[in-house]
Amino acid sequence: MRSPCRALLILLALLTPLQAWAMDMRIEGQSVILSGAVDGSECTALGAILSQAAIRTVVLTNSGGGNARAGYCVGDLIRERGLSTVIRGRCASSCSRMWLGGIERTLEGPNCRVGLHGNYASSGGLLPDAPHRLRSWIPQRAPHVDRVLMEQWTSLPTNNWMMYFYNDKAEVCEGRACTPLAGRNARNAGLATQ
Questions:
Q1: Which residue, 23, 33, 61, 177, has most beta carbons within 10 Å?
Q2: Hey, CA dihedral for 128, 43, 40, 144, is it positive or negative?
Q3: Distance between CA 74 and CA 72 in Å, rounded?
Q4: Residue 4's pLDDT band (boundaries 50, 70, 90)?
């Protein structure tokens, strides 16, 4: 008797989607809060929310990124809808593409940060076409972006490198080892609008 029950439990576990890996999306007033890893389903899920609720702001929180295509798609969707974006906490990699879609882009508080780098293969190496794509996409969303900094972050050699921008500072990091970018921040780098 144990064997059929165990087999049924295993079958159910295999058939159950792994929603824990997808970004969490919840509505708060006229905002939708997105948090967690970007798995690729976000554009469809956010599109469904936007078709049913009067959303003005997308809040991005505690995301280290993930699926690059989803980042671009959500960023484009946010821009098409004329929404604002806010970061609470950390929003890095593909999450930064989502944030850059906002008409108005802010970082909420001194410890909030946006992390930018290129697009990478599963091995961690920079994809050959990634810098070109980013260098054409980013200025369409952030026309005042510092192009020298953009050249640097889109060419970071591996996915363990990141350029972080805060309200009052910026730094380039390889893993946990970070070097300040003197005098730079999210606003004067042309990323945040407020």
A1: 23
A2: positive
A3: 6
A4: very low
Q: Which two tokens stand for residue 79?
A: 């821009």
Distances (CA, A) of 13 to 1, 17, 97, 104: 19, 8, 33, 42
Exposed, middle or buried by CB within 10 Å (0-12, 13-18, 19+), for 139?
A: middle
- Domain range list for the chain: 19-180
Topology (CATH) of 19-180: 2-enoyl-CoA Hydratase; Chain A, domain 1 (3.90.226)
The predicted structure's pLDDT at residue 20: 42
10-29 confidence digits (pLDDT tens): 333 333 343 445 799 999 99
Percent of the chain with pLDDT over 90: 83
The whole-number average pLDDT for the span 27-45 is: 96
d(Cα 33, Cα 85) in Å, to the nearest integer? Answer: 10
According to DSSP, the β-strands at 170-174 and 161-165 are antiparallel
Task: Tell me the Ramachandran region of residue 40: left when phi exceeds 0, alpha when psi lies from -120 to 50, beta otherwise.
Answer: left
CA distance readout (Å), 71 to 2, 26, 90, 91, 176: 45, 18, 15, 11, 24
